[in-house]
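Ticket 4471: requesting a sanity check on a complex prediction with NG1. Repro inputs:
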Amino acid sequence: MAGDVNIMVVPLVFDIEPGTPPDSLVRLLRQRLGHDGEVYLVAAPGRVNIVGEHTDYNGFPVLPFAIDREIRIAFVLSDDETIELTSIDGYGARSFQVDESRSPYTQGDWGNYIKAAVRGFLEEGVIDAGRARGFKGICAGDIPVSAGLSSSSALVVASGMAFLKANGLEMDSMACAGILARSERYAGIEGGGMDQAVSLMGKRDTALKIDFFPLRIRPVPLLDEHVFVVCNSMVQASKTASARASYNRRVVECRLAATMLRAALVKRTGVLIDADRLGDFNPEKTGFSWEELERMADEIMRGSPLPLSVIADRVGMSVDDLVEKRCTLRDGSVFIQPEEGYEVRKRFLHVASEARRVEETADALRCGDAVAVGRLMNRSHESCRDNYEISCDELETLTSIARECGAIGSRLTGAGFGGCTVNLVESSFLSSFMRNVKEKYYEDYLGIILDSEKQEKILFPCRASDGARIYRYR
Ligand code: NG1
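Returned structure tokens:
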């Protein structure tokens, strides 16, 4: 399709000229292994999402860009099926045979992201476990962890690229992004495909509008003379703890909302429609306007939050059937119904309005209309707070301080429940913005003093960057 990001072959490999001083991670690996032959360095970026939160797994678009913060792995090819990776950021070493990728470490272990990538290629038939080769390396990263900037997906993508390289394979980037998105779900979150796609196919100085089912990626220009600044709320949103259940709960709520909307449409039109995700219910696909779809949702979802028994009754299914089809996670476990029931209506309202905001924000970026982009970011934040209920006190304080300090738009980015905000700031105000947020949020509100080394990790402008690539050092 015209304007789409070109489908590439991955991994992209660049040869480093002999005599070029090696990257520090490459140097360290050579020292540790006492090896001066061929070494590879894979770098996979994290991302910020400008608008389009929790739309990806619903089949609606997102609008992120890859940032200039990455996970890097320096590695050599193994001549057997061992994968061995040591974190130099203090997370320890993990070593397993390719085939053991099917048995995860305990929940929350960072090694599960390496195993997830490897397992994905095995289960989807790209690499044959019996003949697979591994790699041995060290890794490091500068993407804040559990902060909504996709450090986990960057690790999945970097591990996946190293595994493809170790097996001498190349593949189409779109297919690869799909495999890695499905793979990451082995780590326990029923996530969508935004993070892996943008980490793999990010484009320098450009945002990407990504559509799903099927995956389509279009570049969207960023604004001149404006910059996106990341501020970490310092609330860890670890997806291995309560944020995991909160995230998966919303995935289940959206699936239930889609089932209810399908029942409402069938009742209204008398026609059985093939629709599974909320993204299947838009004016183009259904022939009903957003307002009509909202009215149908209001009616069938009345009284939300609702227990499964009421939802089952309204859609004409048994509770058991509903549990099996809508509440079962990738690992086969069943999501346990929350005491207060499932909040279907608010989730629908967020997702349907956020989908429209993605289109409007992409248009505003194309027109260079910073004020409109900022307004849409603020609306998105309100919807994330009020209807998706993924904000927290610290994120509320941080976004209002950021707006007081001159951000044109400020919102949480990523899964929420803590983590970072993304802020649109005019370049000429950047230093005063950073100074004021540092004082008002970090010093006055949190009581933390940020020296320049700390600040670099917590409060920083970011630049849209290219996706994952491998450098070969001979
Ligand atoms: P982060 O913030 O990286 O955990 C998660 C999901 C995305 C998307 C966003 C919310 C994963 C790996 N990532 O991102 O797919 O749903 O939340 O927009 O599950």
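Notes from triage: Residues 49, 53-54, 56-57, 148, 150, 152-153, 184, 189, 191-192, 194-195, 239, 414-415 surround NG1 (CB under 6 Å). Leaving this open until the requester confirms.
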